[in-house]
Amino acid sequence: MHIERLVEMLNDIAANQAADPDNAVAAIAQHLKRFWDPRMRTQISAHLAAGGEGLCDAAKEAVKRL
To answer: How many CB atoms lie within 10 A of CB 47?
Structure first.
């Protein structure tokens, strides 16, 4: 999958969790573990390691928890 699409999807997930900022990062990470294919998680982790361009802060923190 194109990394731009993964970034967009992850930022959308983060935006949906913004109403509960105290639990947002954990909820985002849980969503990634439950619903994202391992290849998608590997790809987004590599993107973060390369700087994480385009990812919002909550998304970056969630990817770090993978």
So the answer is: 20
